[in-house]
Each structure stands twice: as C-alpha cells, then as structure tokens.
C-alpha cells in the first residue's frame, strides 16, 4: 500500500486530521484501554451468567448477546491501534484491515440493536403480565430476535462489499481500519449506517423507557389513591391491611423506579456515545473530530458491562465471587434476586 502523510486532500481544501503524532499515541492508548477494560468486563458478564442459575433469565440472554458482541469488538481493537499509530499507511496485509473493518461494523451494529432489544424486554416484563411476557418471549422468539440482531449488520457488510472488494479496509484520511472514505459510495454508505444503526435502537430504548415511566407513575398513583380512601378508623385488621398496602406500594415504587432510572441512564449513554459520531457520518466537515468521536463510540463496548452488570444486584454478587475465584454454588447461594422481576 502506498504511503500517505497525515495531510489528506478532500476535493478542495487540505484537511489535516492529526496535527501531531502525540494525537495518534493518545487515541491508540485510549483504544488499548477500552480493549483491556471491555474484554475483562464482558468476560465477567458471560462467565457470571454461565455459572449462576439465578442469572439465567430471558432478559439476561440478551445481556449475554450484548457482551458477546462487545467482546468481539474489544478483541478487534488492537488492529485499530496499529492503524492509528502508522503514519505511512497500513503496515500489514490488506485483508487484515478489511476483516477488521467488517468485524467492527458487525459487533457495533449487533450491540446497538441488542441494547434496544433489552429495553423492549424489560418494558414488557414490567408493563405486561407474567403470562403474557412468557408468551411473547419464547425460546423461538428469543432465538429469532438474536439472529435478527446479527443479520442487520451482516446485511450492511454485504452492502459495503457490493461497493467493491476493497471498500472495507484502511482509511487513509483517518488512519483507521473502517472503509475507504475516498470511495465514490462513501457518503452513501455513511447515510446507510446512520439510518440503520441509529434511529431504530434509539427509538426502541426511548419508547420503552417512556412506557415504563408512564406505567410506574399510573400504578403508583392508583396505589396512593387506594391508600388514601381507606377508613381512618383504626382496628387490628384495618391497620394490618393499610400497612401491607403501604409496604407493597413502597416495594413496587422503589424496584420499578430503579429499573426506570437505569433505562433513562441507558438513553443518556446511548446519546453521548453514539450521537456525535452518527451525526458526523452524514454532515460535511468535521473530519478532525471523527477519530475522537469514533473512540467515544468504541467506549460503548466497555461501558455496557458496567451498566447491565454493576447496576444489577445478582451481577454484583457474581462479579465479586468471580474475582475471588469462588464456585458456581457460592454465586447461586449468595444471590437473592428473583428471576425476571
């Protein structure tokens, strides 16, 4: 591959993405940290679910799928560091860079759609009856959903390959293994990525969060009204009933609001990590910002285990036991979280 300096020409003015080599070192270092943290975190999630029966729920099937996609992305990042550090073009065989670009699209695309799937699953779990939830999320439907999450990015890769066998690979402008940003179909491909990978998962997460919030608010108000209408004359049975209602109200409110806050947190992370890069894909200019926002997007692969792991009571116990090299029995024994609640 011919050597290319840091300065690239884009149909007019000269654009310098990397002004100094220290920028390359910084990006490569951050990518390396994402690789290490993400690999450890996603492996912990996968191992925890495989070892603890308490964690083998339908929702966590999607969490494992998310971790698998993110793990693939993290294991693929060392090639990205090599590309960023190389001032004179991709130093290894071209097929490695092309494969890296395809795997990156595959893993990130599947991860984003799985995030949306998890939000929908939790929304149905909270707003629907248990019987209805299990009718919808059967083994067949769950399998079909996961396959669909992988097929979407595979279809995008197929589109990229249709543009040319060398379309996926080294970007001389950004010094990254993504796709040829000087190709005639590069702008079209950017739009396709934006349209397919951004609005659908974001819509699923946003709608699910709103429905959970609305359900929790309505249910809490009904319980509050029912409590206020109880007779004020206290007797033994009446006092117990009032106390029981209050306890149920408090338990529901705290548990469901915790899940609601978690989903709102997911939306915030999605917007922070995905939106800047997605917007830059379709807007002209801003080439200097693409590597930085690309690294921010990659952070999604190492943050997800902490969102779906550390904020879940059973995962907290499982992680602690795994780090202490405990057994499957000890993880399951110390866990008190009820499946699918």
UniProtKB/TrEMBL annotation:
Keywords: Cell membrane, G-protein coupled receptor, Membrane, Receptor, Transducer, Transmembrane, Transmembrane helix. The chain crosses the membrane at residues 25-49, 61-82, 102-125, 146-168, 188-213, 263-283, 289-308. Its main location: membrane. It is found in: Cell membrane. It is a multi-pass membrane protein. Coiled coil: none annotated. The keyword rRNA processing does not apply. The keyword tRNA-binding does not apply. Residues 41-308 form the G-protein coupled receptors family 1 profile domain. GO terms for molecular function: G protein-coupled receptor activity. Pfam families: 7tm_1 (PF00001). One of its GO terms (cellular component) is plasma membrane. This is Putative melatonin receptor type 1A-like. It comes from Stichopus japonicus. The lineage of its organism: Eukaryota, Metazoa, Echinodermata, Eleutherozoa, Echinozoa.
């Amino acid at each position: 591959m011919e050597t290319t300096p840091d300065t690239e020409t884009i149909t007019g003015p000269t654009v310098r993405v990397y002004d100094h080599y220290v920028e390359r070192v910084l990006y490569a270092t951050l990518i390396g940290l994402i690789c290490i943290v993400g690999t450890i975190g996603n492996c912990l999630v996968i191992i925890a679910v495989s070892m603890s029966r308490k964690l083998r729920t339908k929702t966590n099937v999607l969490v494992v799928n998310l971790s698998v996609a993110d793990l693939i992305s993290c294991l693929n990042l060392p090639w990205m560091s090599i590309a960023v550090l190389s001032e004179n073009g991709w130093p290894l065989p071209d097929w490695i860079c092309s494969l890296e670009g395809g795997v990156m699209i595959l893993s990130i695309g599947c991860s984003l759609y799985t995030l949306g799937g998890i939000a929908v699953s939790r929304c149905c779990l909270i707003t629907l009856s248990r019987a209805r939830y299990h009718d919808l999320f059967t083994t067949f439907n769950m399998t079909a959903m996961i396959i669909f999450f992988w097929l979407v990015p595979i279809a995008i890769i197929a589109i990229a390959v249709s543009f040319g066998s060398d379309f996926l690979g080294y970007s001389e402008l950004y010094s990254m293994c993504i796709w040829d940003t000087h190709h005639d179909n590069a702008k079209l491909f950017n739009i396709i990525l934006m349209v397919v990978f951004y609005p659908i998962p974001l819509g699923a997460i946003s709608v699910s969060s709103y429905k959970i919030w609305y359900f929790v608010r309505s249910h809490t108000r009904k319980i509050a009204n029912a409590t206020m209408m109880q007779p004020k004359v206290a007797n033994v049975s009446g006092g117990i009933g009032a106390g029981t209602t209050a306890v149920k109200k408090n338990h529901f409110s705290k548990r469901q609001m915790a899940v609601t806050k978690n989903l709102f947190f997911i939306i915030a992370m999605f917007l922070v990590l995905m939106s800047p890069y997605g917007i830059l894909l379709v807007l002209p200019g801003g080439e200097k910002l693409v590597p930085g926002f690309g690294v921010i997007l990659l952070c999604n692969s190492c943050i997800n285990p902490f969102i779906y792991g550390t904020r879940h009571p059973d995962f907290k116990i499982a992680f602690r036991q795994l780090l202490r090299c405990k057994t499957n029995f000890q993880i399951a024994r110390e866990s008190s979280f009820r499946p699918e609640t």
